[in-house]
Amino acid sequence: MKVIIKTLANVLLIFLINISYAKSENIIKLGLLVPITGEHSYIGKSVIQSVRMGINKINNKNIIIFPRDTKSNPEETFRVVEELYNDGIRIFIGPIFKTNTENLNKFQDATFLSLTNKTLDNPSNVISTGINAKSQFEAIKKYLEMNGLSETLVLIPKKEYKEEIEDAIIKSKTKTKKIFYYDAEPTKLTKQIEKVTRYGIRKRNLEDEIKRVEESDDPNKERKVERLKKKDTLGRIGFDSIVIADFDESLKSVATSLLYTDVSPKNVSFISLNQWFDETLFREKSSQPISFPSINFKKYNDFKDEYNEIYNQDPSQISILSYDLVGLVYYLLIQNDFEVDKKLFSKKNKFKGISGTFEIKNNQINHILNFYSVEENNFKEIF
Length: 383
Description:
Blueprint: H1 2-24, E1 28-34, H2 41-58, E2 63-69, H3 74-86, E3 91-93, E4 111-114, E5 126-128, H4 133-146, E6 152-157, H5 162-172, E7 178-182, H6 186-196, H7 199-214, H8 221-228, E8 241-244, H9 248-260, E9 269-272, E10 290-294, H10 297-311, H11 319-335, E11 349-352, E12 357-361, E13 364-368, E14 370-375, E15 378-381
Parallel strand pairs: 1-2, 1-3, 3-4, 4-5, 6-7, 6-8, 8-9, 9-10
Antiparallel strand pairs: 10-14, 11-12, 12-13, 14-15
Helix pairs in contact: 2-11, 4-5, 6-9, 7-8
C-alpha cells in the first residue's frame, strides 16, 4: 500500500511539475491576415497551409495562429486586426496586398509582416517581406560587376511600380548608362524600342556603307556587299546590357521588339526581374539567354513537392515566403527572450530560410538572392 501511495505521489509531483513548466513556456500568437473568400482566396488558403507547414516543421505546440479573412479589403482588414489586437496579438503575418495596409499605423506597438514586395510609403509598423526591387537590383548589380558590364540600359514600363524600380536603382547603387520609360501598349512599344536602340540610325549606317562599297573601286566589293546585306543594321547600340523591368507577356513583347531592332542576347546581355521560374520563357528561344534574380530554385522546388504531397495541389508563389516567416519570427523571438517589442525587427540580423537569406535591419527586410539564366529549357544557376 505504501508503495502504491508513494508511486501516486511521484506521478502527481511529475504532473504538477509539467503543468508548472507548461505555464512557464512562451505562447507565441500570430495573427494571419489573408483573403479567405473572394477572388484571391486561393492565395490566402495557400498561405495558411504553408504557415501550418512551417509550424509543424518547428514542432512547437506553443505557436498558435489566428487566421482572419481580409476579403482583400482595407476596411475589413482594419476590422479583423482590431479584433485580434484587442485579444493581445502584436505580430501579424500579412496582409498580402499593399492596399490593405492602409491605416494599420494606428496599431503602433504591433508589427505587420506584409507579403507585398512594395516598400515605398508603407506605415512605419508594416514590413515588406516580398522579393522587393532593391533586393533584386543588388543581385543584378553583382551580376553586372561579375561580367564587367558597365553600359547598362534599364527599360522601365510606365506602370504603378516604376517608383519602386527607381528607388531600388538608387539604393542598390546600380550603375546605369541610361534609364528609358516605355508605354507597354503593343501598338506603341516597337517604335519606342527603335528610338532607344538607335535602330533608324544603325539601319541608315548599313545602307550608307553598302552604297559606299558598291561605288568604290575595291576589287572585293561584291563579296563585301553580299556580306553586308546579310546584316540588319550597322554600328553599336551603345549598351552592353539591358535590364527589362517587366513580366509575363509584356516582358516577351519587349524582348521581341529588341530582336526586331537587331538587338539580341548574342551581342547584349538580357536581364529581367524575378520571374518565379516561369517555364513559358523556355519557348522564347531567340531571347535566350535571359538572366534574372530569384530565390533558391532547388529549395523552391523541394517546398513545392512537399506542399503538393501534403495538400495534393501546387502552392501560390508567395507561399514559400509565409512558410519562412514563421521560422523568422520564432528565431527572432528566441534571440529576444520571447519579448515582443520594437527591438525585434530593428536590430541587425540574418535568418536563413528555405527561400534564401533574410537580412533584417531597421524594420526592413531584404533578400540575398540567387541569379539564374534561361538556357536550353533549363534555369541555369549563375550564383
